[in-house]
Amino acid sequence: MEIDWTDVRPRVAALAARPGLDRAFGWRWHEGLLEPPLTDAELTALEAQLGVELPGEYRSFLREVSRGGAGPAYGLFPLRRAADRWEWEGDGADITDQATLAQPFPHTEAFNPVDELPEQPDEDDGGDAEESWWELHDRVAFSPAHSVGLIYLCHHGCALREALVVSGPSRGQMWADDRADDQGFSPVLGDDGRPLTFAGWYRKWLTESEQQLT
To answer: Where would I find the Knr4/Smi1-like domain in this sequence (predicted)?
Structure first.
């Protein structure tokens, strides 16, 4: 299905011109600035580098709206080209492993990698046991294996991030990575309780920003 993005730039520009941007989370950071879109040639080169076709909604956004900037939380990580390679830039953007984007992200429901860990030792068990448990916790929680097939697109601060599923049964959906809060991964849901795709996620942010900045 084709996405009509023609309203996005005017709406973002209108919001950026309003006073009181600090009332809406993240706007003081990205200031409503949208970087230029990718050309067709740039998009082709990006997908050739990644070895995977991007989900259609994000793909069309990159081509018709912007390669990054104003968006949910502190804004969309921008795509930048350096040393003949495209990279996403931002706090946590480096979690995206381009070499594993074609590997399926296998999940369709929320999961927490540390749920299967053995019970945390009591403080009375001694410092070594506690330290060993936390070392195991961090190895399991932050294993790169959990983020295959994901492109990280933004952060909420405090190492909380959101990513687009590129490969697997949830392809096209936005997922939250809340491992820093020990909450694992979960699909980002809309008001109807259904997982949001990129377009729904972005437009939800835009509508909420308009409501906050009236």
So the answer is: 37-204
